[in-house]
Amino acid sequence: MSELSRREFAKLIGAAGIASSLLQQPQTASRTIGIQVGAVSFVDEDVESVLDRFQRDANINALFIASFSYGRGIENYKETSLGELPRSGLSADYVDRETRRAVAGVNGKVRIWSGVDIDIPTGRDEKKTESQDVREAVRAALRAGADGVILSRKYSEMRLANLRAVGEALRL
Predict the structure, then answer these.
(1) CB neighbour burial string for 67-100, b if at least 16 within 10 angstroms, e if fewer
(2) Phi, psi of 59 (to 5 degrees)
(3) What do you get for the CA distance between the two ends of the chain, in Å?
(4) Domain segments of the chain: what residues?
(5) Mind listing the pLDDT tens digit for each residue in 88-124?
(6) Element spanning 66, H or E
């Protein structure tokens, strides 16, 4: 067997590295692949079927729960009347209850990230997000077992004081 030059050795090592990387399966476990999904999806179909489809078809490992719907009824809704809701908003207790329900429903099969709406545009006489609302909602989601929180809807709509409230909630 002849000795390899440094150049030939480098070529072989490079080729071996490329070949081994081609043989590996895609690594999605370290990445969050999420989908926003409402509870109604689990009502229309059974939980196992929905979770299996998400994982099989798209390697989804996180659910971003859209827990409120005006249209199809609200499970476990214990807030103000729907007519008053635009003026009062949803409470941190609601975030806690819905997050707990989602975490229990998926039984550890996927990660749950609760959505916290910050400064969604509302009408003149409707609820405006306050920093305390944000702090309480973030704490409620994490206390209830969420793996994380997704801040919605658009950064450009968020007041910086309310964005800072997220950090404050995480530091306490």
Answers:
(1) bbeeeeebeebebeeeeebeeebbbbebbbbbbb
(2) 55, 35
(3) 66
(4) 33-171
(5) 888 899 899 889 988 998 888 888 888 888 888 889 9
(6) strand 62-66
Structure tokens at 98: 């819905």
Neighbours of 130 (CB within 10 A): 15
Rounded Cα distance, 24 and 33, in Å: 19
Distance from C-alpha of 141 to C-alpha of 113, rounded to nearest angstrom: 8
Q: How far apart are CA 10 and CA 5, in angstroms?
A: 9
Q: What is the pLDDT of residues 20-79, one digit of tens each?
A: 444 444 444 567 777 777 666 666 777 788 888 888 877 778 777 665 544 444 555 677
Compute the distance between CA of residue 111 and CA of residue 88 in angstroms, rounded to an integer: 30
Task: For 106, list phi and psi in degrees, rounded to 5.
Answer: -90, -10
What three-state secondary structure class fits 114? strand
